[in-house]
Amino acid sequence: MKRTIGLVDYASSDESDTDSNAAKEVHDTRKAESQATQPASKKLKKLPPLPGYLVPEAPVDNPALHQGRRRTTPHVEGQFAAYVYVPLIVERRSRLYRLLLQILEAARRLVPILHPIGISQPELAPISQVTGPPEDATLELHISLTRPVYLRAHQRADFKRAVHNAAKAKRRFSASFATISDLTNDERTRTFLTLEVGAGHDDFKELSEHLTPILKSIRQKEFYQDPRFHASIAWALLDGAKAEEQKSRSPERNQDPPSTNEEFPTIPGFPPVLIPQLRAEFSRQLVDSAVGRFEADEIHVRIGKEISKWRLQD
To answer: Per its UniProt entry, which superkingdom is the organism in (predicted)?
Structure first.
């Protein structure tokens, strides 16, 4: 007996497409109805602000906090002011320190607004009458090897390495002061009373020239072509300081009350008789080898608030 095989009834392609489209329409309709009944999703919350101690503070250029001095180069986030110098440590019981007091007191008789550097006392009190710190305290003066330079964060390590290499390439040396001078900063906002180096000038120049390649590589100004190495002992604001402040003020700020610089008197420059008079009175003591002679045995670099130090070779 032959077995009868029934045929399977497959749907046609047209019928399959129709059924598939119908099922999709039902699915989309149910999905839309489901979404309509669900509550709207909440918006993402904003992140809370950073705590104050994590937010870097931009320096406030307030002359009232700096005896009338005003920043001559605008602050740039991520940029660090730097300079290189040889420190001069003066013991307050030394003859050089006593000579400094005498020079400053004589200078302030002609320029009462003079600000001593590193010597703290009331502005109007005669320096010789001020009760100073303990006799074993010291005063640090600086002999600059560079102009102020400005570094980006990634340049700091290379700059410090260059200063370290300069220290390794130079032996410590003796130097001495030769005269009293006055110098003015590049911006002509301040004038300085200085002790100018005589013996040791070539050694300071050699140290400074070691830094020329790194300064060129970061596009910063080299030191002066004919440098006058010196230790500044006092300064005064020049009339140009007010002009610089006025130039930096916006039209809106020009409507503000008088600037803080007006609280600090300025001068057009030192009186012409000041330096000749100080030289006549104190040069003989300054060039005395027991007074104006000192050892240069370290080189320092200050970058922002960080100070790095290296000793010269023995």
So the answer is: Eukaryota
For 247-281, the pLDDT digits (tens) are 555 444 444 443 444 578 999 999 999 999 999 99
User: 81-234+274-311, which class in CATH?
Assistant: alpha beta
200-254, pLDDT tens digit by residue? Answer: 999 999 999 999 999 999 999 999 999 999 999 999 999 976 655 555 554 444 4
Instruction: Report the half-sphere exposure of 50 (CA within 13 A, side-chain side).
Output: 6
Residues 151/230, Cβ–Cβ less than 8 Å: no
> Which is it for the CA torsion 99, 114, 300, 223, positive or negative?
negative
**130 φψ region: left (φ > 0), alpha (ψ -120 to 50), beta (else):** beta
Which residues have a Cβ under 8 Å from the Cβ of 210 and sit 6 or more positions away? 162, 165, 166, 169, 170
